[in-house]
Amino acid sequence: MRNFLFFVGGILLLFSCATPQEDTTVSTLSQAALPDLISIRDLPDSVQPISISIAEVPPPLRIKIPTRSAGSYSHINESGSLTRVNLEIPVSQNLPYLTDENDQVVRDVAGKPYIRGDGGVSQFKNYSTDNGLALDAVNSAILDSRGHLWFATNGGGVSRFDGIAFTNYTTSQGLAGNSVRVALEDSKGILWFGTVGGGVSRYDGYVFTNYTTSNGLGDDAILSIMEDSEGNIWFGTYGGGASKFDGKSFTTFTTAEGLADDVVISIAQDHSGNLWFGTNGGGASRYDGNTFTTFTVTEGLSSNRIRSIKVDHSGIIWFGTIGGGVSRFDGQNFKSLGHEDGLASLVVRNIAETRDGILWFATENGASKYDGTHMTTYTREQGLASNSILDVVIDANGKLWFCTEGGGVSRFDGGSFTNFTTSQGLGGNIVLSTVEDKEGNLWFGTAGGGLSRFDGEKFTSYTATQGLAGEIVSSSHRDQNDNLWFGTGGGGVSMYDGEAFTTYTTAQGLAANEVYNINEDARGNLWFGTDGGGVSKYDGEAFTTYTSQHGLAGDVILGIAEDDYRKLWFGAADGGLTRFDGLAFTNFSSAQGLADNAVIRLVKDAQGNLWIGTENGLSILSAEKIKQIETVIKLDDYKPILEDSVSLFQNFTTNDGLPDNVILQITELPNGKMAVGTNLGIAVFDGAKEGKPLDSLRNIEIFNSETGFPVKDLVDGQNGMYVDQKGILWAGTGNNKTALVRFDYNKLKRNHTAPSVLIKELRLNEEVISWHSLSKQYEAISTNTFPRTIDELIVYGKELSNTERAELQDKHKGIDFESISSFFTLPQKLVLPYKNNDINIDFGTDELSKPFLVEYQYMLDGYDENWSPILRKTTANFGNIQEGKYTFKVKARFTGPVDSGAGEWTEPISYSFEVSPPPYRTWWAYLIYGLLFISLIYPISIYQRNQVIKAENERTKERELAHAKAIEVAYTELASTHENLKDTQAQLLHSEKMASLGELMAGIAHEIQNPLNFVNNFSEVTNELVKEIKEERARPDEERDKELEDDILEDIESNLEKITKHGKRAGAIVKGMLQHSRSGKGSKEPTNLNMLADEYLRLSYHGLRAKDSSFNSDFEMDFDSDLPLIPMVSQDMGRVLLNLFNNAFYAVNEQKKEMGEDYKPLVAVQTSKVEMGKDKQGIQLKVTDNGKGIPKAILEKVFQPFFTTKPTGQGTGLGLSLSYDIIKAHYGEIRVESIEGKGTTFTINLYISPANPS
């Protein structure tokens, strides 16, 4: 009885007031709802899970893989219909084999065929005349020092490519011929173009200078160009031998001087300084500066027709031949590479070497890559524009560019991505699931095409005709016994043991025949997530099914995972996340912070974190949180976990860098990075590091079509994204073109250098200008006008007539510049007239393959104060530029895959120009204005003076009379207005005081209510105890319990002490208020500021709570206990403090209404001693809130009378004004600091001895 009364008293005490009784700050953590906990043992017997033994139901159907077409069986298809299926031998399709010139399969010495490329479609990007290339027959290419590619075409001149557009040059611009065989950039940045029949063109960025046999060249058909270590340019000709140009004259070498043949197709210089000449039948000639030494098939060359020569980084010389494949010469011996080594063709037209020592051979039957041991060939089937490759060049970031004979140019971004479709033998283009068997074969489950087994060389298909349960295979798993399990879209689940498929359906106890997920726990039990049937556990002997009726979050189970504590987690598409410990289900949803209740995928990483893919973002349940959950015994144990400052779930969306919020696949890469598959491709980012929390997506890399990779939307089947034992990522996409993606992350081509920024063009008011046509150097001469001609042809598509040119010059009259830069026609030291003050500046980088991933920032010094926002556009526009000197600056960074440091911002490059003032603002215009002003000011002033004197004399009497009358009227009106203003001010002051008094009274009532509640509650309990002791004493002496009576008397005594204590507390509160009211007569008395601030802070808080029960906020007090007593009018100072506290609580309450439950409102009050001048001590009080802050534009107005930021009717605007006056009356100061969006701090400084503070 006694214990029950104490329990009731405690309950009454808890509910006696709406706020806590202790003087602690109120917690503002998000009060997440507790998860649902359903114990299986608490369920009625009628809904307990049921186990179905395999021994008690029809046996599962087992179909052995047929080795010949024979027999049939009854099969239930995805639609549920029973059909008869004829058994057939599995069908296989080999990956495309490499074939030779005679269309015969190329095999190695062991007879094994070579597969083309990586078996599928590789990552090629093709360019043709449709993209602006001059011609699709491209003989060769070079990369210049500005990072641009020049393509020599077989009839269309040359094309320059900057990553975005092609610029074409032909004989119209001065090129020696339109059929250009070869190109070179020398050490001075000069370009050389060898033509077929037109000789050689030298291009310095301004003009083409042409050389032919008339200048000493050996022949006008140029087949090769090379610069030696001394700066001489060598030209290999068709019949004229080799010509050396030293900058002044030509020296020609032919067979007469010892050259092997006069048709020189290739030239190279080895590490010893020797020159090598490849000829069209005479072999290779080595020239040491004095004599020629010739090597032929007799010395070991594979052919005497040498098409190309390459000296690799180690000094080995490689010869590409016509008909003999490749010959390797180490200085002593030759070694040949041919078809048996995997070479695509025996006609090798060019050779290139990458930074990592890989050799590429351009052949007439594709491009062959050689790593020193293995050859891989890429052809049209892998994405090349044509198999006939004439040249290969490597850009600054390792991308390969192949020049083809009729197909244009192909760019190869590396072998990291390969796509497989039904063309390569895949059963269907939509791959839903993947699993690897013990032999390393990959099994791909498709949407309608059954299973495809891939052994690296061929795809073998399995469907119902081989015993598979269905054609839609949405899940797959390899168990501990190496059996493969395949869940279908309506036919149940099939187990493959290496010989046969054994199918389990609802007839054997499976929850449903649509199986979306298969997982195996540490005990060897298999768990099947189904569509609508919940989850089934199979222990090898029986199926046990669990549904939402037993506690699952939903019955459509898409994800299953087991944590490090052997607890199972289920992701439901229709209910959230479920944890199952074998005895009870615990369900988590968005109410506990999950990103979304539609859970699609569950994966546990190596660190024990649970990754949860939903329809609205990625959620991560950390290993630490899982560990905390493991300690939960009862539901209330979740409260500290949910109220922790670290959220239960860490959520990530597109706002954090994900390409899309629909998370369909998750898998862990061997390097610890996490791959997340979405509706918009794959995101790869740093995963959890051991011992460190995963608090953000770091170093995220996006792979999709928008970033230039062959990946589109990911599929939503189990293991639609899968990492095999070699570390290769396989991903099924929802696109027929990309289909199955093979992603070797380690082979990803990364930019290893930051981009170089270039300013390309300057336009005026969006008009492209031929700057050479405006140049003064052409006004006095009529020759050497090629720069002007080239410029006009590029800008206007034609050479201007003299009339058109004169009109252009007249239109832009007044523009002045000293010179024009080469290659990009930018006027230097440009001065623009004021009428041309709208300019457009085009810029770019040397990023050729993915210029759309380059970000820029620019600014115009003298026009802009800050850098522009980060942009991907390559044009800056500036209008209405005032006169002055300006410098344009631009910087860039590459946002695609990079090596360390290559993704940083580049150093800005600049371009300076000047704008002249308009004629009316020039110095001579201002001089004229001054002279005119001086010449007119004297006569005008004399005239005006006389007129003024005359008018004033006439109006003096009238003005004086009117003035006197006006003063009398104004004085009367002013007196009346002054009285009205005094009445209005008094009313407003009274309203402000009454408002403060109301809030004070609400807080005081709350403060008194608390101890009165204690008195009432303990009085009731004591009355009950008195009744109980009376009952006990009414018993006979022999039945009375003396010990019980003593206990009751002790409890009564204790309760009376508490009643006395809380009664005194109420009295103290009333006494304090009376003291404050008596001290409000204007006299200053020594006052404890800490106690005053503490009291009014609580009165303000409880007063606001009384007006609005939904109001809640934390408050903190940091008081200096050593503060002395300060002379002050405590009632006035209390009004100041109450106003500041009310404003602070109002600010955080408004911020909480906007921010929601994640926001934690806080008001902090601090007191301290401060120095307030020489030998002057003071105290300081700060009131800080974390509300929305005060805008900078109105911060200085807050102390003005009638100024308020509150809505109409919620404030008079006098509170801070009165506070300011009160502080000034105390010889103190009050100031405010605020950061918009962060919060506000009011600071009060008071002198300790303010008698004479100055």
Structure, explained:
With 1254 residues, the protein is of the alpha+beta class. 20% of the residues lie in helices and 32% in strands. The chain folds into four domains: 124-416, Methylamine Dehydrogenase, Chain H; 422-747, Methylamine Dehydrogenase, Chain H, CATH 2.130.10.10; 757-769 and 812-921, Sandwich (Immunoglobulin-like); 1083-1247, 2-Layer Sandwich (Heat Shock Protein 90). It has a five-stranded antiparallel β-sheet, with no helix packed on it. Strands 2-48-47-46-45 form a five-stranded antiparallel β-sheet, with no helix packed on it. Strand 15 (200-203) and strand 16 (208-211) form a beta hairpin. The two termini are 71 Å apart. 42% of the residues are buried.
Radius of gyration of CA atoms, rounded to a whole number: 44 Å
CATH superfamily of the largest domain: YVTN repeat-like/Quinoprotein amine dehydrogenase
Report strand order across the widest sheet.
1-52-51-50-49
> How many helical stretches?
11
Shape: flat
Oligomer: single chain
Average pLDDT, rounded to a whole number, is 87
Question: What would CATH call the class of the largest domain?
Answer: Mainly Beta
Please give the CATH architecture of the largest domain.
7 Propeller
N-to-C span: 71 Å
Q: Give start-end ranges of low-pLDDT stretches.
A: 1-30, 780-784, 1074-1080
Major sheet description:
5 strands, antiparallel
CATH topology of the largest domain: Methylamine Dehydrogenase, Chain H
What is the SS-derived class? Answer: alpha+beta
Task: Estimate the helix proportion, in percent.
Answer: 10-25%
- The number of strands is 79
EC number: 2.7.13.3
Catalytic activity: ATP + protein L-histidine = ADP + protein N-phospho-L-histidine
Pfam family, one: Reg_prop
InterPro entries: HATPase_C_sf (IPR036890), HATPase_dom (IPR003594), His_kinase_dom (IPR005467), HisK_dim/P_dom (IPR003661), HisK_dim/P_sf (IPR036097), Ig-like_fold (IPR013783), Reg_prop (IPR011110), Sig_transdc_His_kin-like_C (IPR004358)
